[in-house]
Amino acid sequence: MNRKATALDVAKLAGVSRSAVSLVLNGRGDGNVALESQQRIREAAAALNYSPNKIALSLRNRQSRIIGIVSDQVVTSPFDGNIIAGADAVAREHGFVTVVMDTELDGSRDEGAVETLLDRQVDGLMYVTVGLRPLHVPANMDRVPAILANCFDDRPEAVVPAVIPDEVRGGREAAEHVMSLGHRDIAFLAGDSLTPAAPRRIEGYRSAFLHAGLPVNEARVLQVGWDIDAGFHGTMKLLDGVEPARRPTAILCANDRLAIGVVLACYRLGLSVPQDISVMGYDDEFRIAKAMVPALSTMALPLREMGAAAMTSLLRDVDRQQAPDDGGTAAPGGKEPRSGTSAETMVPCRLVVRDSTGQVPAGR
Amino acid sequence: MNRKATALDVAKLAGVSRSAVSLVLNGRGDGNVALESQQRIREAAAALNYSPNKIALSLRNRQSRIIGIVSDQVVTSPFDGNIIAGADAVAREHGFVTVVMDTELDGSRDEGAVETLLDRQVDGLMYVTVGLRPLHVPANMDRVPAILANCFDDRPEAVVPAVIPDEVRGGREAAEHVMSLGHRDIAFLAGDSLTPAAPRRIEGYRSAFLHAGLPVNEARVLQVGWDIDAGFHGTMKLLDGVEPARRPTAILCANDRLAIGVVLACYRLGLSVPQDISVMGYDDEFRIAKAMVPALSTMALPLREMGAAAMTSLLRDVDRQQAPDDGGTAAPGGKEPRSGTSAETMVPCRLVVRDSTGQVPAGR
DNA sequence: TTGAAAGCGATACCAG
DNA sequence: CTGGTATCGCTTTCAA
């Protein structure tokens, strides 16, 4: 429990000066410090279990190698934690550490979180949300390099770059998957329109019909909510007391929990999945989609990839800002702050086919 | 994007020395600095939007006001995030910030995480796990005040204190709940014995029978796993093709996902919940238990409370260590390092009654 | 009442 | 090749 060894301790033990210690331990010893001294220094460092005090380093280098992450409720809720995991993995690879502040959906805490993080001299800032949504970027967030993950700058000029999933394409590919199994009467249970995720997935669903030259039956799109019970009751509305020939043959859901409700309702009505009706989830929620009975076909959100992509891009900006301008600055065209990259990076979702989708029943 | 203002900037603007700024801004101005100067200093600070550089503070005070949290997979998985949320809330109240490192279940990364955190000069360390389990405490973790949440020191001497849920009592109260509804033939679907959570819950289940003066039917305890499909197949084994009078009337599950599987199986068999059979979950998983059809009766894990309790205790130790010994040290009895507290703090679970449990069917 | 100076731990420059 | 010294931003003595 005794205090850690400092460079001075090492120097004393090795009988040299602090500077020598610094040089040797940073690989700049050769040609500067006598080999014999180097040896002694290394031994002393090992003996004392020396490692430099990162706080002192931060002060001196004016960079903390800390990335601040503000989350709206990623920590508290069971969702989207993999965005942070992906981001953190990349940060760690680069010798950065992340500190996460969760506002638990209290928007008034945004600025405070950013302020706290800035006081801690973070080198960069990331904002992560549960579910795709527009973000009112907190003040001062742009004082250091910043990026958004799973949300996007709500200002028309979109100052802060963002990494988001390609929900439109996800919705479309989900629909195309069941179409490829022969389904034509396909319902969509779709969360709500409070966040852009559901509307975008619906847009993809519509575009699948358009591309297939099929009409879209708007009555098949139900914005019911996001939870199990919503899926259950939505399905009851779609199927209960409806003659078989007029039932949809497939139900697409805006997330996996809705799909649980759908299957629950099907079983209650004595229907089999996927023999009588095909069901698809969305998200590929850990320990849910794969473990369902039947295992859910779903559209996996690329959470880890999003986090990793966001952090990669952020660290590039951090480097760029800290390195004094070199080389290419004389390029014609001038100032471009973000080197021509679009402000929004789209990451594709991934179709996962399991057991809840099957061929359309004969005669439909 | 320009660098933040320093105390020197404030001093210059106010026409005083750095020391005066420091004094005033830390409330020690009265009696040391002229009121007029104080006013000017405060104005200057506000004008420059000054706030002290925490890194410099940390270096000077030899304390970072950072608590390091090592998690085995709390960040990555959808579970138990509320432990961290609870811990973080308490930390924030006390002006601390937490930095979380997730090892993603790779035990070999434990020591590295602790090392990294220690290099960052954290004032304290917490280890958080998904699901109760014994922990092989990483080396060096005891170089600063430390605590475990949802896990416990696997060494017989139990050096590091821990905060864990009272699983035995939880299991017992779950069983007592359905007993109070008249059930006597109660099955338990129980995860596995790889972690102590399921065995302890089973132990509670048994003790409920003992206290009620009823025999325990060991054939009713099935260690099937933790996921939806395990619940489904376990239930099938219990109910499918079994004559009604020989079926259990209630099924207790070691978590809420198992309960989903149970209900799924019941529906498939044409059984109603809770009319034909009562089902109970465990955990009160967010967006699952409450949203199920029917809404699940369950035993809520006190995650937030555990995190908060662990952090409260940890910060007390941090304070104690940093404050030089004052007053009471002369108390008789001497050294006691942990002021007599037991190393393991148990937090009770909370019974949540919803719609999946009901009176035992007539005649059973 | 105020300002000057010392140190927290590490690095990098620059004389020696 | 080496060791002294300034610096990062802040607090806290200590003299004036």
UniProtKB/TrEMBL annotation, chains A, B:
GO terms assigned for molecular function: DNA-binding transcription factor activity; transcription cis-regulatory region binding
Entry annotated with the keyword Repressor: yes
Biased composition (Low complexity): 324-334
PROSITE patterns: HTH_LACI_2
Positions of the HTH lacI-type domain: 5-61
Signal peptide: none
Superkingdom of origin organism: Bacteria
Gene3D superfamilies: 3.40.50.2300, lambda repressor-like DNA-binding domains
Start and end residues of each stretch annotated as Disordered: 321-364
The UniProt record lists the keyword DNA-binding: yes
Keywords in alphabetical order: DNA-binding, Repressor, Transcription, Transcription regulation
TM annotation in the entry: none
Protein name: LacI family transcriptional regulator
Source taxonomy: Bacteria, Bacillati, Actinomycetota, Actinomycetes, Micrococcales
